[in-house]
Specification:
The structure holds two protein chains of two kinds.
Chain A (H helix, E strand, L loop, with lengths): L19 H6 L3 H29 L10 H36 L7 H20 L26 H28 L12 H32 L13 H18 L2 H15 L6 H14 L15 H29 L8 H24 L1 H7 L3 H31 L5 H28 L13 H30 L38
Helix pairs in contact in A: 2-3, 2-4, 2-15, 3-4, 3-5, 3-13, 4-5, 5-6, 6-7, 6-8, 6-9, 8-10, 8-11, 8-13, 9-10, 10-11, 11-13, 11-14, 13-14, 14-15
Chain B lengths: L2 H16 L17 H34 L15 H29 L7 E8 L2 E6 L8 E4 L3 H6 L8 H8 L11 E4 L3 E8 L4 E5 L4 E5 L5 E6 L4 E7 L11 E7 L1 H23 L4 H15 L1 H4 L17 H4 L2 H10 L15 H12 L11 H7 L1
Parallel strand pairs in B: 1-5, 4-10
Antiparallel strand pairs in B: 1-2, 2-3, 5-8, 6-7, 6-9, 9-10
Helix pairs in contact in B: 2-3, 7-11, 11-12
Classes of the chains: A mainly alpha, B alpha+beta.
């Protein structure tokens, strides 16, 4: 792929505004990307602190630190913050930084809407976190907010609903921006099947978001009217059905978990070829597999509900469809491994995180396949086996991909190389501790420990203690990550990195200087 | 957390490894259980687990070989192949075949588990925040009905600030901490028992791992399930759907008895029920009511309203000095019978007998500085 790089142009490059207002009023995709990423990092630590409270209480049986209601708030808000405040904004930040540069565009298609999409989020999370200080406390019915339990929440209830609406609006607007940008602003010669896989995965993710966030909005609005307007959507006494909420929620919820992983697949598909010095194996299969996963994600939702008492035909359908999703996902893993095979690999930090992703996301995929077997799921459902599954796919999956992406592209964004020794230390500390934290949770779930409980029977004590120790070390290791990022952004003044930071890197973003100019491609490059 | 506790925990770890009798490091797998269902489920679980292990060995093996051999530092030169339609077809078809071969036994097992027909007896299970109510619908035990709550000693031990740790709990309760109830569900062995599951307030889920299944208990709806236990014994389970504050504190205990022992239990229960009915029509002394009421309070009310009656406002109001507990007894009876919809205060009309309701209300009206009237079982009965 050869390009004609834009250097400076004849009309002035005015550069960013100065001071705080730069960040409030920016319409620049790089600035907005930075805002999303820093916001996500902050929320990662807030959600992480809640996880530390959870693991501290679960360190031993008996109640030592918090009361059960507050514990339930910790599990609930930990999940809401991590999903909607850390992972999704981080992926959106990566989309903002990278998509224009990868397709040869000067910016996103709708820059002002882009600014608004970001700034809704700090407001939404202030609302959500402020419920801790209200009568009745923060949400404590699980991040899935099932009624009737969620309707027992105190004064914070409407604030939680409003916060969720705002997060949804932010995602929908961001997704519209992504779709319009990708479909309209690719450089000449960049056909859809020449786009980097990260752009493909975000295109598909954006369609999933547009399709499903309104469904979540509908579900939470029905909760709101059941509480305040006398409706009975989820109240049997009024002719409604609590299980209907679950259907509506998971119709959103299942595509949501693919929203949380498809961009990760794109990131890994960028990093592995670079450090294997070999092209991505099976590009078109990867595109079709991603599209298949997205399509299948709409027809499997009730595997989250196998125990509600569905008719057998329904259970069978959802079991078969869920097992099918393993096929395209497996195809992707095999393609990554084939990319590594007979390559010429080096193992810098981004590659370490990418390889860690492939191995540990696959472990999460295995427990997912086990959960798909409906009769077996009757034993696994609502236990720590499920908790282990989704933390493997979300932490060693999504979060690892975000860290891999950060190490990979931060030198491009800042012009400074991160500290490789510290990066590797962060990787190893995290990887060892994350497995100590989550692997024993498989055992706990199989042995009979339910989820969302603050205290447990004595035979679960040993593995819980091990898991908590893993948790504390993992949490502390992330402080190292924050330090590395800070140091890299600040720079050391000396080592400026070239445009092509990594020897094996391919793609338009590596043709721009490091750091890139404020407006990336003011003249479109030509793609052969 | 106190540094002392962390230090004790870290020191305990090696000790636990050296004392296998005390440690449960071998708690690794699903229990086989005591029913045909649980055995079938265990077998399915093991098959899919082995399938995953084998695939893992192949995939991770390939990755590890590649990382060792195909590295730049070993002088490896990158090949440039980047697609193969044949391989894509192969690694699509083979997984599909593996999945189909899993789906067949899974379908058989699921169909068997959902077949509730030809049951020998039926028991209705109602989940309510935060206990289980059991009603025997038919057969020799028809009419027996009781509430099963976390055992009071366990309920005390689990309170925040009770000063418990692993060793103390193990000494006090062995391995039944939070898995013991005051009144277990007693069932006969060798009979197909059909369960009807529902709930009174929020969604709960009834789960006994040794029986091999769980089923949600949903307010306003009735779910069905069944079991057939061959082996007499005690089987313990837990609520498995987040249902509020005390979701972790509503265990399930099923005692399976051989038919003769079961019949003896039924006779004894019916006798006790007759005594309770008699007790409800007599006039009780204030002291007797308060003594009984204190026990009922500890088992049912203290979790929210606290042993000292001060509650945890605003979610759980204080009873000490409250308008309800010191004012008109009729209003007090009404709140306890019918609950407060839209709050966590449950309706106790189906959970407690007239005698227990009268006792606990009298206790509340005469404790913590409240000095009030006595409420008799007959008053409660009249208010229903």
């Amino acid at each position: 792929m050869s390009t004609a790089t834009a250097t400076h142009d004849d009309h002035h490059d005015h550069g960013p505004a100065k001071g705080l207002m730069r960040w409030v009023t920016t319409t620049n995709h790089k600035d907005i990307g930075t805002l999303y990423l820093l916001f996500a990092l902050l929320m990662f630590f807030i959600g992480g602190a809640m996880a530390m409270v959870i693991r501290a209480e679960l360190f031993q049986p008996g109640m030592q630190l918090v009361d059960p209601q507050f514990f339930n708030s910790m599990t609930t808000v930990h999940a809401l913050v991590m999903i909607f405040g850390a992972v999704m904004p981080a992926f959106t930040g990566l989309a903002n930084w990278l998509i224009p540069m990868m397709i040869g565009a000067p910016d996103m298609a709708l820059p002002r809407m882009n600014n608004f999409s970001f700034w809704i989020l700090p407001f939404a999370f202030t609302l959500l976190l402020s419920t801790f200080f209200m009568n009745g406390g923060a949400p404590a019915g699980g991040w899935t907010i099932y009624p009737p339990l969620s309707l027992q929440m105190g004064d914070g209830f409407p604030f939680m609903i409003f916060a969720i609406h705002l997060m949804g609006i932010s995602s929908i607007m961001g997704s519209i921006n992504v779709v319009v940008t990708i479909l309209n602003m690719r450089a000449p010669g960049m056909t859809l099947m020449k786009m980097p896989l990260f752009v493909w995965t975000w295109l598909i993710t954006a369609y999933l978001l547009i399709a499903t966030m309104p469904v979540l909005a509908g579900a939470v609005t029905m909760l709101l009217t059941d509480k305040f307007a006398g409706t009975s959507f989820f109240n049997a006494a009024g002719g409604g059905d609590p299980v209907m909420y679950q259907h509506i929620f998971w119709f959103f919820g299942h595509p949501e978990v693919y929203i949380l992983i498809l961009p990760a697949f794109g990131i890994i598909s960028a990093i592995v070829p670079t450090f294997a010095r070999k092209p991505l194996f099976g590009y078109s299969s990867m595109v079709y597999a991603t599209a298949s996963i997205a399509f299948l994600s709409f027809i499997v939702w009730a595997h989250h509900m196998f125990t509600v008492g569905m008719p057998v035909v329904g259970e069978l359908f959802f079991m078969y469809a869920t097992m099918m999703i393993a096929v395209p996902t497996g195809v992707k893993v095999f393609n990554w491994v084939s990319t590594m095979w007979k390559g010429s690999m080096t193992f810098e930090t981004p590659m370490l995180f990418a390889i860690g992703f492939i191995m540990m996301f696959t472990i999460g995929g295995f427990s997912g396949l086990m959960l798909a077997i409906a009769p077996a799921d009757f034993q696994y459902h609502d236990t720590y086996f499920v908790v282990a599954h989704f933390h493997y796919v979300l932490v060693t999956g999504a979060v690892y991909s975000i860290m891999a992406a950060t190490y990979y592209w931060l030198p491009k964004w800042t012009g400074n190389m991160y500290d490789e020794r510290l990066g590797k230390l962060h990787f190893w500390l995290s990887t060892i501790s994350v497995n100590v934290l989550f692997f024993p949770q498989h055992f706990l779930g199989l042995a009979g420990m339910p989820r969302r409980i603050p205290d447990y029977s004595v035979q679960f004590a040993d593995w819980n203690m091990v898991s908590s120790i893993g948790g504390f070390v993992f949490g502390a290791s992330q402080l190292l990550f924050a330090w590395i990022v800070y140091k890299t952004i600040k720079g050391r003044g000396k080592e400026q990195v070239p445009a092509k930071v990594w020897e094996g890197a391919q793609g338009l973003e590596w043709t721009l200087p490091s750091p890139p100019p404020y407006h990336s491609f003011t003249e479109a490059p030509v793609v052969k | 957390m106190k540094p002392k506790t962390i230090w004790r925990g870290l020191c305990a770890a090696p000790a636990l490894l050296a004392a296998p009798a005390m440690a449960e490091w071998n708690l690794l797998n699903l229990p086989k259980g005591v029913t045909d269902t649980s055995h079938a489920v265990f077998d399915l679980h093991m098959i899919i687990l082995w399938v995953c292990v084998v695939i893992g060995i192949v995939v991770f093996g390939a990755m590890i070989i590649a990382m060792l051999k195909h590295r730049k530092s070993k002088g490896a030169v990158a090949a440039q192949f980047h697609e193969s339609t044949t391989m894509e077809i192969v690694w699509t078809i083979i997984p599909i075949l593996i999945l189909v071969s899993m789906a067949i036994p899974a379908t058989k097992t699921l169909l068997a588990m959902e077949d509730v027909g030809d049951a020998d007896m039926t028991i209705k299970i109602t989940g309510v925040q935060w206990k289980w109510k059991y009603d025997y619908i038919d057969g020799e035990a028809a009419g027996i009905s009781f509430v099963s709550s976390l055992h009071p000693e366990h309920n005390e031990a689990r309170l925040l600030g009770a000063g418990m740790d692993t060793e103390t709990l193990r000494e006090k309760f062995g391995d039944t901490y939070l898995r013991e109830v005051d009144k277990p569900l007693v069932v006969p062995t060798g009979k197909k028992i059909r369960f009807l599951l529902t709930a009174a307030d929020v969604i709960h889920s009834w789960w006994v791992p040794d029986l091999g299944w769980k089923k949600d208990a949903i307010p306003g709806f009735v779910n069905e399930s069944w079991t057939l236990i061959e082996k007499p014994g005690v089987y313990r389970g837990k609520c498995a759907e987040l249902c509020g504050k005390d979701h972790g504190f509503m265990p399930i205990v099923v005692v399976a008895k051989a038919p003769a022992d079961y019949a003896a239990w039924v006779a004894q229960q019916k006798g006790a029920a007759a005594e309770t009915a008699a007790a409800a029509s007599k006039t009780w002394s204030k002291d007797d009511l308060i003594a009984r009421g204190q026990e009922v309070y500890a088992a049912n009310c203290a979790a929210c309203h606290q042993p000292n009656g001060k509650g945890l406002p605003p979610a759980f109001p204080a009873l000490a000095g409250s308008a309800i507990a010191t004012g008109d007894p009729a209003k007090h009876i009404e709140v306890v019978l019918n609950g407060r919809p839209g709050t966590a205060m449950a309706a106790y009309r189906d959970l407690l007998s007239d005698v227990d309701l009268a006792a606990v209300i009298t206790y509340e009206r005469n404790s913590w500085g409240n000095s009030g009237s006595v409420v008799q079982p007959a008053d409660v009965k009249a208010a229903r």
